[in-house]
Design brief:
The protein is 62% helix and 0% strand. By secondary structure, it is mainly alpha-helical. The longest helix has 23 residues. This is NfeD-like C-terminal, partner-binding. Keywords: Membrane, Transmembrane, Transmembrane helix.
Length: 90
């Protein structure tokens, strides 16, 4: 059996992606982390069995998590800071 069918391997992979997100914050690895944990839970409860289905669920869960985190934590429209005076003005 490869690691694709082992539930705890997906959870460990998710936590590793979470650590990588803390080291290099870009909100990209967070989507992969959430997708891996969701996939690990689904493999653990027996919903997923085959390799193609597991990879498809991982890809879709990661993409959905990335869109959610981008929506919640990403740049907001119209939030650019406009400076109206210089720091050196008295």
């Amino acid at each position: 059996m490869s690691w694709f069918g082992i539930w705890w391997a997906w959870i460990v992979f998710g936590f590793a992606m979470g650590v990588l997100e803390v080291i290099a914050p870009a909100y990209v690895f967070l989507g992969f982390a959430i997708g891996a944990v969701v996939t690990g839970v689904l493999v653990g409860i027996g919903v997923l069995g085959g390799l193609p289905a597991t990879l498809l669920v991982f890809a879709l869960a990661s993409l959905a998590a990335w869109f959610m985190t981008r929506r919640m934590l990403g740049p907001q429209a119209g939030t650019a800071k406009i400076w109206d005076r210089d720091i050196n003005d008295n």
